[in-house]
Amino acid sequence: MATVVILLAVVTALAEITDKIRIPYPILLVITGIGIGLVPNLHPITLNPEVVFLVFLPPILYAAAWTTSWIDFKKARRPITLLATGCVVFTTCAVAWIAHSFIPGFGWHEAFVLGAIISPPDAVAAAAATKGLIVPKRVTTILEGESLVNDATGLIVYKYAVAAVVTGVFSLWNASIQFVFVAGIGIVLGLVLGIVFKWIHKITPDNPTTDTTFTLLAPYICYLTAESIHVSGVLSVVTCGLYMSYNSSVVFSQQTRLQSYGVWNTVTFILNGVIFILIGLQLPLILETIEEHSFTTLLKYGGIVSLAVIVGRIIWVYPGAYIPRLSKKIREREPEVSLRLVTIVAWSGMRGVVSLAAALALPLTAAGSAPFPNRSLIIFLTFTVIFSTLVIQGLSLRPLIKMLGIKQDNHEHEIEQAARLQIASSIIEHIEENYSLALSDEVLNQIKTKYEIRMQRILKDQVQSKKKIDDQQIIEFHRIQQELLDKERQLVIRLRRDGKIGDEALRKIEYELDLEETRLILERGL
Fold this sequence. Notes:
The protein has 526 residues and is mainly alpha-helical.
């Protein structure tokens, strides 16, 4: 228990540091984990693969799916599919060939196992590496969508590669049929469970606490149900997450959305932080199991395999981006491809928790009760690839974006602002049509003021040349509102201190003030 508390404290402290030094936090967490693991006389912390797959994977994937736009995902489904399936299979084969060719005693079967383990980039690492960077929306959609689906591809290939080592038998035809079946049924199951969860939320009384709790249970239900019938738990979780996210506006109340977002942000922060610390802590344990190779030799092998992973993705991405555009239909349906943006996608191949968990889950024995060939070496090489891709690609991504001169795509922002303007304009028309006779001019103007100022702010943002739209009035309006909110907080605290109200009344009023201040902050950020 003390170890868990210490880890959470370290994760929180490091998150504060990474926010200031602007590097992806998984990098610093992994390095810190290695440093902690090298402390002498420290009790070793083992990473149980079953725990990782069950406890960490479902909620992390579900949260990533929840924050991914289904509309954007559907528009980018072709490049996502090419990366999540084609690139994973290609990388698996490339790594297998390199490992078999350059590492003595590395057979084809275990080489394909290694390839399947390290072929899928990580959802958490991809999101963390691109967070806060000036990257167009389509690029982040492709990277996040790829990392959601590719785990399923990698784990399915991994399953059959391990089976080939354990049994000594492999059929490409049977594996291909099983791949389609496992993936397809996993998607259908996720959709069915999503529909069921939506129905449950709609027929049950609105209760933010129970609704939020149910969203935490949903990914585990999807994953365990899928795994119990031997289909893809990953795709089941992702499909359900995308479906529920798309329908969240009609399923959840505003209180549930506010509460669930806060809870999920905390949960995913803790899970992501702890898992990357645990990855770093595995290195000393991994090195203890390898005795037949010197550390220098291990580093050489790790460098070769890491290079194969990075270069293999680059080799796949460029032709995958341009060759399909030979089709006229694709050129008409999809936006123009930018070489600079393709380069960013090619370089964003960080590996993470799923790869390490898959490596640690390798069986101890193979066919005939013999030891699983090169098991310890596979685990070390997996760790090396995770560390290399996180550090090399993760740290160089921001300078690369700057060097390529990539600028923020304002198209999504313009669409959002146009929608806000249309909503505000429609509300003002609704007020004038329905309340002009029932209310006095003074009350009517007070009701309309908020929406008129909001329209002014949007118009100012859209047309910079119209600086005479009284910027000062908008700033002054928000300043006064903030001052009044602060004054209300001081008064309610004083009333509680003087014994005129109790804690229950204080919390209720504070909650209302928190909501009002959140709205004000969002308006200032328009």
